[in-house]
Write a structure and sequence with these properties.
By secondary structure, the chain is an alpha/beta fold. It has a domain of 56 residues: Rossmann fold, CATH 3.40.50.720. Strand 2, helix 3 and strand 3 form a beta-alpha-beta unit. Helix 1 packs across helix 2. The protein starts with 9 loop residues before the first helix and ends in a 6-residue tail after the last strand.
Length: 93
């Protein structure tokens, strides 16, 4: 539990709690087998991806590589801890 600032409505933050739990659940599965010095690749640096990056760096000693098509998202991915980022090619149709 944390005290919310008086200017914040709890309903405005509900999606963050859900997204955070989704990212945590996925990362927790991976960290069961990920050991320090190993490498993990995360595909996607959108909203859930950025939460996943933060969680991965907080509970894992692995090297994190993030792949996305969006250069701006990749630049942001470095801030919460992505060790390496790569811009992917456009999806094949």
């Amino acid at each position: 539990m944390i005290k919310l600032d008086d200017s914040v409505e709890p309903a405005d933050l509900a999606a963050l709690a859900d997204a955070g739990l989704t990212a945590y659940h996925t990362v927790a599965k991976v960290t069961k087998i990920l050991r320090p010095g190993k490498v993990v690749v995360m595909i996607g640096a959108g909203g859930l991806g950025h939460i996943g990056i933060q969680v991965m760096k907080a509970i894992s000693g692995g090297t994190l590589i993030v792949i996305d098509q969006n250069r701006a998202a990749l630049n942001l991915a470095k801030e919460p801890g992505a060790d390496h980022v790569f811009e992917s090619d456009k999806a094949l149709s």
